[in-house]
Amino acid sequence: MRTLIGIVVIGIQVTLVLTLVGLREGIVNDQTSRARGVGADIMVRPPSSSVVSMSGGMPARVATRIDQQPHVKISTGVLQQGTDLFNYVTGLDLAQFNKLSGGFHFLSGGPFQHPDDVMIDGFYAHQHNYHVGDTITLLNKSWRVSGIYEPGMLTRVVVPLDTLQDLTANTGKVSMIYVKLDDPSKTDQVASQLRGVLKDYRIYSMEEFTSLFSVSNVPMLTGFIWVVIGLGVVVGFLAILLSMYTAVLERTREIGVLKALGASPGYILNILLREAVLLAIAGSILGILLSYVTRYVIHNLVPASLIQAIVPEWWPIAGAIAVAGALLGALYPGLKAARQDPIEALAYD
Amino acid sequence: MTSEPIIAIRGLRKTYHVGDVDVHALRGVDLDVQPGEFVSVVGPSGSGKSTLFHIVGGLTHPTSGTIQIAGRDLFGMSDAERTDLRKTTVGFVFQRYNLLPTLTARENIEIARDIARGNGPLPPEFLDVLKLLGIEGRLDHKPRALSGGEQQRVAIARAIVNHPAILLADEPTGNLDTENSNAVLALLRDLNTRLGQTILMITHNPEAASYGDRIVRMRDGHIE
Predict the structure, then answer these.
(1) Does B85 lie at the interface with A, CB-CB under 8 angstroms?
(2) Of A150, A168, A200, which residue sits at a domain end?
(3) Which one of B100, B166, B175 makes the best mutation probe of the A interface by having the most chain A beta carbons within 10 Å?
């Protein structure tokens, strides 16, 4: 039972690390994939904006100047507003956006017909149990769900641009302008031109933009992950310390017998350290398996808010963290056992 | 010409410091044991026989006196040197068998070899000893599946697998019924006569003591 508890605690520690890292990778990958899913070649963002900041900040008429540039096929501005910790709503001109992106693929319902209509993606609908025709509240306003579209593009909630601009006091403004070219091979050339025309604006090719979606651009996330990893090591260390300390107490006589047979302190310590490593390895395997369970649970409960990827590159890292914590935790009980007086140990009951 | 004693003890003293009190467990013991001798040490509780056993076995160090085991001087040995002594020079048989419960009988014997020599499997020639002990068919069982007598015989096998100079048996029949006690004592006698194993056995049982070649009586830290 003691061994099983130790394995489970380490398993939970490893699961925690892999789940957090998986969430980090999953969220970043999902954002990258949905940005690419729009089908744009270039993105234009307001001056002083960052990749992760999605508020309004530039006049929509900037798109007119962009359209005048050679090789620009179409451009369209969108306004993005955060609705909760994980989600944004995007206001767009549906006709223009459809020309640029090729349009939404609907799972049910269709595009918005009225100013108060909203389109949501399949994950959002599943998470909140929404259906076409339902009335939902966003940004303190009621909206009618006109359609549910296939996930993989833009944000999970889309509304008419005019309505969102009025609602958020951003009349005439957009957060970003998507640009599609008639020849994608001209992306760098056009981007360079736009930087000359729209001084101070942030001009990104799609490749550049998606490459900036990294953990380092998400404030505090990396630090948070390392804090949790550190806590996990401490938990694993304490679990093994307790487990091995109890083991040493329970096996005092056995340790005395081994010493009577001529086992050196190093031999005794080696046995206990090996046992701790085996516990850590077993716990790591359990943790890896449980990370699939957490992914399944997250995907079924909150698919619109969180995406957890399975990150095999982190399996050996999480395992090494578990082993390191276990070795540290086994050291004190191991040394105690190694130094035990054999006569006292043999007399222990 | 008599051979050198395999155990040679002169003026052996052992004092334990228990709080502010000194306990004189051995008060000057002289004892010689010849190679191949089977010596029974008897005495009441507190006579010092267990302390003598622990010192001869290298489990603790003497306070003063001289003690030589198979030519090695124990006085002044470090813990590491006494640990080394226990690997191949001395074998122990305990009253409570002290087999490791998670290992089979075979593994319990092999671990003694592993500690001493780093070798695992039992050599084929040891099978004869196992047959002598009557446990060759019980080696794959764990201690909980063995009777008391079988466990003690496994313990004896473990004690002699490294061919120690001396076998130290501390009340080896203390936890056994009469039938098993006699069987174990007969085995020890057999090991002594057939294999020439030197045996020092502690017992409070006069009948068990009579299996030895010689009986040494202790009282109050002295040999009478």
Answers:
(1) yes
(2) A200
(3) B100
**Is B103 part of the contact surface with chain A (CB cutoff 8 Å)?**
no
Query: A177: which strand partners?
Result: A44, A77
Question: The complex's ipTM?
Answer: 0.91
Residue B28: both structure tokens together: 């000057």
Domains and CATH numbers, chain B: 35-50+78-223 (3.40.50.300)
What is the Cα–Cα distance from B93 to B184, expressed in whole angstroms? 11
Do A120 and A22 belong together in one domain? no
Distance from CA of B82 to the nearest CA of A (A): 8
Residue A165 covered by a domain: yes
Tell me the whole-structure pTM to 2 decimals: 0.79
Angle at B126 between CA B123 and CA B131, to 5 degrees: 140
B36: left (phi over 0), alpha (psi -120 to 50) or beta: left
Q: Which residues of B168-177 are buried (b: 16+ CB within 10 A; e: fewer)?
A: bbbbbbbbbe
pLDDT tens for each residue of A246-304: 888 888 999 999 999 999 999 999 998 999 999 999 999 999 999 999 999 999 998 88
A240 and A314 co-located in one domain: yes
Cα angle, residue B76 at apex, residues B73 and B81 outer, rounded to 5°: 75
Cα-flanking dihedrals φ and ψ of residue A74, to 5°? Answer: -160, 150
Give residue-wise pLDDT tens across range A91-131. 999 999 999 999 999 999 999 999 999 999 999 999 999 99
**Chain B residues whose beta carbon lies within 8 Å of the beta carbon of residue A263:** 83, 115
DSSP A216-257: GGSTTHHHHHHHHHHHHHHHHHHHHHHHHHHHHHHTHHHHHH
Instruction: Dump pLDDT digits (tens) for B115-166.
Output: 998 776 788 888 888 998 899 999 999 999 999 999 999 999 999 999 899 9
